[in-house]
Amino acid sequence: MTAANTALPAPKTVPSTGPPRADHLALLESHAIFVLREVAAESERPVLLFSGGKDSAVLVHLALKAFRPGRFPFPVLHVDTGHNFPEVLAFRDARVAELDETLIVARVQDSIDQGRVVDPGPGRSRNRLQAATLLDAIAEHRFDAAIGGARRDEDKARAKERVLSFRDAFGQWDPKRQRPELWRLYQGRVLPGEHVRAFPLSDWTELDVWRYVEREGIELPAIYFAHRRDVIVRDGLLLSLSEWVTPATNETVEATSVRFRTVGDATCTGAVRSEARTVPEVIAETAATRTSERGATRADDRFSESAMEDRKREGYF
């Protein structure tokens, strides 16, 4: 008997009769939409945080999928430091107007004028001051849930946070008193004066966000793509020149091709050198990087290991 005669017949291919297997992005999308709907259903007065950045743009897109053709069951809130990139503010306003949703802008400058916080001075970051402004807005509008686009891969403090993160009557966060979320079961109940922060993008990575942007064709501010810009190198960061960032006598202005991985207070948010002008090119760069966007480009995070956690304990989002 030859080897050919002893070989077993090839197994027959049986066509699948079940639904196609969901891909990674589809699973992330499904869970995020589930969280949005759960928060909307369990809360009396939720609000969605929208800065005009890439994560909040994805969050708004997911809210469209969760609630259209109806209107959002919550307004949109932006905590404005007064040091924002003008391209991002223009995108924020245009997007909200396009969707015909309600935008509430809580301004850090108002908190300074009211004596609630102290102005750090010209050219200094106002990021930490956002906590008081956000808590005041939550109290004024009696919000019991604030939905944000934070992700666990951004920072070690964010990695400690649950999908539903509870804040006490003072708006403070205690990482040791988080509720368990086994099998993705969420408890959204809060007592009077308390509120919850909800993070539907918790399990997403920066790369997931960009791949989802590509798949869904989500529009983003042009600042996220490579463009020529006047910058200075300060404390290892490429800071864009603006009315809040001016060169010192020992600093040299350089016009170079950069893009931003994250956007926030312009005084502490750095750019990265890049030639990535399209979403696929940004995806390729993001796949090759080994640092988080906040760790690489945010001065208020990179120079202190506990900076984010300290701010979150005070009420930061």
Secondary structure: elements and pairs:
Blueprint: H1 3-6, H2 24-42, E1 46-49, H3 54-67, E2 76-80, H4 86-99, E3 103-107, H5 108-113, H6 130-141, E4 145-147, H7 156-159, E5 164-167, E6 195-198, H8 206-216, E7 227-234, E8 237-240, E9 254-259, E10 272-273, H9 279-288, H10 293-297, H11 299-302, H12 307-314
Parallel strand pairs: 1-2, 1-4, 2-3, 4-6
Antiparallel strand pairs: 5-6, 7-8, 7-9, 9-10
Helix pairs in contact: 2-3, 8-9
H and E order: HHEHEHEHHEHEEHEEEEHHHH
Q: Can you tell me the CATH superfamily of the largest domain?
A: HUPs
Poorly predicted runs of 5 or more residues? none
Terminus-to-terminus distance: 74 Å
The backbone outline, from C-alpha atoms, is globular
What proportion of the residues is helical, as a percent range? 25-40%
Average the pLDDT over all residues and give the rounded result.
Answer: 87
- Quick one: CATH class of the largest domain? Alpha Beta
What composes the largest sheet? 6 strands, mixed
CATH-defined topology of the largest domain: Rossmann fold
Number of helical elements: 12
Number of strand segments? 10
Widest sheet: strand ordering: 3-2-1-4-6-5
CATH architectural type of the largest domain: 3-Layer(aba) Sandwich
Oligomer: single chain
Compute the CA-based radius of gyration: 22 Å
Assign the structural class, choosing from mainly alpha, mainly beta, alpha/beta, alpha+beta, or little secondary structure.
alpha/beta
Q: How many domains would you count in the coordinates?
A: 2
